[in-house]
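User: Quick one: structure for sequence A, then sequence B.

Assistant: Sequence A:
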Amino acid sequence: MTAPTEERQGEVAPHPHPAWYLLMAIPAVLDFWYIHTFGVNVPFADSWNGTLPIVQTIASARWDFAQFWAPHNENRMFFPNLILGLMDSHTGANAKLDMYLTGAIMSITLLLLIALARRTTGLHPLLLTPLAFLLFDWVQVENLLWAFQLAWMLIVACLVLALTGLDRRGRLDWFVVAVMAASVGSFSSLQGLLIWPAGFLFAILAGWSWRWVATWVVLGTSATTLYFWNFHHLGSSAALRYDLHHPLAVLPYLLRLMGAIVPTSHHLTAGLAIVGGSCLVGYILVKRRISPSRLRLPLALWVTGLLFDLLVTLGRAQLAVPASSRYTTYNLLLAAGVFLAAVLILVPDRSTGLPLQHLQITNHRFDALICLVVVAVTVGAIILSFPSGLAAGRAVRISRDQGAALLRDYRTVPAPLLAAALFPPSGTYVKSWAAWLQARSWSVFS
């Protein structure tokens, strides 16, 4: 029996009417409105010691690749450093334009994700619309309104582009695209290395030969080795010792981290629901023998989110607040994977018309009920994120506006106030850079 051809694997239903895709443009448009309304042109937190030194180097017509390559905390951010350095050195360190660039990267990611989901699942665009809202969910307010966090969205874009390349089985040109995307993601932040294991799973399910998969593994191992070469910023072993000796504290942390995508105070309950939903959907998939090839995208997204949570838990369980909104971006991928898998159970065959005509509810009613609950909870979480996102956006706007006002008067403002509003490690450090920005009429001084 011969293996199916790459064209047969990628076969999709007849193209639906373009009007269906307009629904997916709504969250992208709302995202730009969100940035326009709540974004503030002022450096914040890591932008002071992470981005501005790079901007100064480029603005001085010097190129110091060692500076671009140097670790920032646990991260090598070569490509975000390059992008933000070039951007800010030519736009007067305008943080709000950086946020718009993040929105543009997310919009491109959405186009790639929907095209990939259509190709791999054949689902009707109406059933894929929640993916768009998850990608732009306002629960990730820090990553939307903090210019420095462009790196995290860049990695998501690289993940989707890498999976898109790996979906073209046996094509050398697309394999090269996937490798390049994974490499850019790898040297954008630590979690970018997760693209390699996610791609490994995707490639196997897509039917790549072992030679191609082995090549992917070798390249991923090489990228990881290069990432950690002469790396001295991983921190002490205290975090690992804490995890090993306090499992009863680590597990709730992990669950709260997963559940932070729900804009409520019940993150532990939400995390338990996500784990339970994942287990139930997984059990149904095995029982119903859904084609693994058709599940390659939801599984890759789910694995990426889970590995990210484990990575954060390993290094942050004894330090960070799990509900920090910047962590939600990758958990939204996890939720997207569970949602897609549940929909594939409800619609096991490639639909050609309106999706409700193809729901498989008559048979396997209990399975269908579980999947409908997963879908309903996902949509409900998206709806709840809008009012909470608006409230969080207003709070960020007020806080950053206050920081911008203090920065304009930096000569008379006490250093502790500048530290509290803009850069907790040192208000004196802010004062030194404020003079440099004012001399060029950049940022809040423009």
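Sequence B:
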Amino acid sequence: MKSEAYRTGYSLEALRDLELVPLTTPQAQNGYFLHESLIRLFQLVNEGFNPRDVELTREEGPVFDDYGFRMNGLHSPLFDRASTPLLSSVKFRNIVLQEIIQQLSLSREKRGNHQRGRISYAQLGINQLGAVYEGLLSYSGFFAQEPVYEVKPKGEDPARDDTVQTYFVPVREVQEQPDKYDPDEFVYENLPDGTRRRKRYERGTFIFRLAGRDRQKSASYYTPEVLTRSVVKYSLRELLADKIADDILDLTICEPAAGSGAFINEALNQLADAYLERKQAERDESLSPDAYREERQKVKAWLAANNAYGVDLNPTAIALAQVSIWLNTIYKGSQAPWYNARLAVGNSLIGARRAVYAAKDILSGDYLDKAPEPVPLGQPRPAGSVYHWLLPDKGMAPFDKDKVIRQLAPDPAKAIRDWRRKFTAKISRAELRNMQILSDLADDLWQRHLQERRTLLARTRTHIPLW
């Protein structure tokens, strides 16, 4: 941003200066200057630019590096057009992109106040990204696979309240069952002649709507900083009590419900501070405030790239966690990190832990009333034992034990009870042998997976010089 050539010619700041310029002619409104400028900017950010790669000719001969600017490419999928083929196939007119830039650059208009403040993205932190995370999870987008009508709860008006959740039903379903929906359940659009009709979307239309119920079902809410700071502080207090600085670099962070990375980011912040405080004391040296900030970013980046793990059911959450951790750890000269080996979409609560039942307990049926024995990582499974997730359990599908369900659906409840009785019947030696073979195969897969993980983590280990 210190380069006038970059700031006035390529930067997003230059485009923000055009956010309120009136587009008065059809050429200005329907041209693609803003679109092409953004594409060029993203290309610069992703691929970088070095004046030495471009030979410039003047009267006195070729010169290489005496003006302009230099950028290191981030090489990030965030700015790679190939990673968003659908979006990359679209060109946006100036009038469309200008409105987008306004929405992203300026605060909301308030009633009676026509002044809108500039948003400084340089000052935004992880908490603000968490608010973005909540907003993204509140909406869902999809392409209509067939013509659909938009419907809503009876008595609600999405035109007046944009928090009203709407739904979509196939046109053919309404035609086949015309009495299924009340007229007040449809969303209507006004026509130029003063009449109105049901809002209909044809096949291939992209629909983007509020999806609050999906968010409730997935418990996708952002954790505020005041909570993450306190939880991490007291979690680390005892853990770090007797540690020297280098011991901190051996600690791993695991967040089994990562969300957009709020707890991981807070742990990185506090561990980096703990490392530098101990290292300064051990070396009897002090870093200047500027040097401390730079070295703190490097420690956070090292821990994030090599020691931080996270899992979440929501793919959007993991994508945002990667972005938030990157923004929290970026430092001068760094490139876009690769977190895919440690931040993953998955289910932490699937229950397939390393725990087993002994063969004698399985044959006698005693295992049904016992808890499985854990097998510590790095230790072999006891001979003849079987992993617990291969065996039936008396607590499976306990719907028949619920009084309300038994009253509402007596026959299915009885069927479940009869099924469970057969399912938990005594296990034969042949069945035991099959489960032992399956457990051996699981161990073989586990060992191969461990080896692949070790190879992957060794090849992707990030080397950052730490103070």
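The longest strand covers residues 139-143. The two ends are 28 Å apart (CA to CA).

User: Thanks, that's what I needed.
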